[in-house]
Amino acid sequence: MIQLDGICKSFGENEVLSSLDLSAKKGKMFVLLGSSGCGKTTTLSVIAGLTKEDKGDIYLDGERINDTPPHKRGIGFVFQNYALFPHLNVYENVEFGLKAGNKRSTRGGNKTEVKRALELVGLDGFENRNPMKLSGGEQQRVALARALATEPECILMDEPLSNLDAVVRERLRHEIAQLQRDIGLTSIYVTHDLVEAMALGDRIAVMNNGRIEEAGTPEKIFYKPENEFVARFIGMKNIFEGKIAALDEDNGVLQVSTGNFDLTTVFVPSSVGTRVKACVRPEEIILAKSDQNTNVRSARNEIAGRIVSISQNGPLMRVLVDVGGDEMSVDITRLAARDLGLNRGDRVLLTFKATSVYMIL
Amino acid sequence: MSLSFRISLSLIAGIFFGFIVVVLSCLLTATSFAEFAGEIRSPEIISAILLSLETSIAVVLLALLFGIPAAYILATKRFKGKNILDTLVDLPIVLPPLVCGLAILIAFGGDGIFNRFDVLFTVKGIILAQLFVASPFLIRSAKTAFESIDQDVMDAARTLGASEFYTFKKVSLPLAQGGIASGVVMTWARALGEFGATAMVAGCIPYRTETMTVGIYMHAMSGDISASIALSLILASFAFTTLIVFKYLGTIGDGNLETRGAAA
To answer: How open is the CA angle A97-A99-A104, to the nearest 5 degrees?
Structure first.
């Protein structure tokens, strides 16, 4: 388990980490998610001992390691640019940590360890290759094998896939996830990629301005973020400021009034008049033309609006709807968009369940 | 490029190259092979050649011993006054060697702070003077080589369990070897050709402190031009060889990985 307590780090005037707390469970994959410059890499660097923190404590399995030099921490590191030793072949790269760590004679002594590490990453037989002549994906596998060969207590990965093309990235991501689970290695994985974070993380922490905004399971972070920054970061589109207008505990719902329209959401104990932010996921809204029958009986929310724009959003279509002065984004499939025959200016009805609305208090 | 411009360019460049070739070949035409062969058998000439080789090689070894740590610190550490130190290293390159020589002369002379070291007018003095003038070339070149190593590569070594020293030995040094090698060649060439500081510190005592360059000056001034020419030709051939080696190192330089990769 890795734990950070109140880590502060400034480079000159620039405060990169401000009282950062973090806790990564043993044997699990902890993902640090954030945009560039938020302090993710510095966090890893501090954990590895490559950057000296100004304040705060670092614990590895309960032991304070602030003053342990990097080579004695037993923390593996995988770099974004692979950072292989260009003057050594693949075998020597993987063997490096074994030789550096223990001073025992290495006459054939490390052969099995190196072979096993290379087998783990699927590079058996690459021993004599020049790492600089390998593809990016292969280089990162070598780097992974090199880090794993030393059997570290935990491993830190700094955007290891971001320099790779999409196909290799996806394959290697899958393999890293598999490998991590098989070995049960405590891991901290840094990325700015939502999909990567979602696919890999047992827990995800979203970082911003040198601190963690919110940490939780991928489910929690992506579907029910409690923090507005996190909500916006994961691409939550419809965030409306409002006040709690009515509580109905018997029916398990409450009303939020944004001023322009009312939203019905699941009941939580609170009081009328409390200022909240209400979110509606764009993909959970059903869109119909006003003259069509929607047949969504369980939907508690029905809001009329007018289409402002229709645009491509990845594989989906994003429809921007004006609802009484606010704009609401709705994601629908291309097929649905064609069947409905949507045009700008069309009057439409948006329906969604109370459970599709949730509040950031 | 217009034709007339190309012709004028070639003409100007031609004059320059021609000048160099003509002047240098004067050294060859002013002597005969028999005369040259006779001169280089003279004990004084042989003594000067050996002394120059001995001192310049000693300088290279000392420059490695002191220069590599200096270069490594300048390249990798951050500390107060680093810029001053960095400039200081370059100073002997731009300072006239005579000035360096004079400074050593005063420092090690009768009232100097190092006067208990017996250096003036000795071989030690020659080495000191050459080291002073030539070692910056090694430091500069090695520093650039250390600086060009990716910090992540060195960090990777640390996280793999390598101490700072092990990382230096097994990662930094091998990766900087191209730069260090070209620094060695430059330093050696500079030491071999050193005259001003050497003459100032060690004087011109035949058989004792007469290096090749000092010998060339002494013999030319005393009218023994054929001895000067013999020494000059030998020095020139050393310089020419150095240049070729240097060009070769330049081509492999930082690309030593490529050549190694091709071999693997």
So the answer is: 145
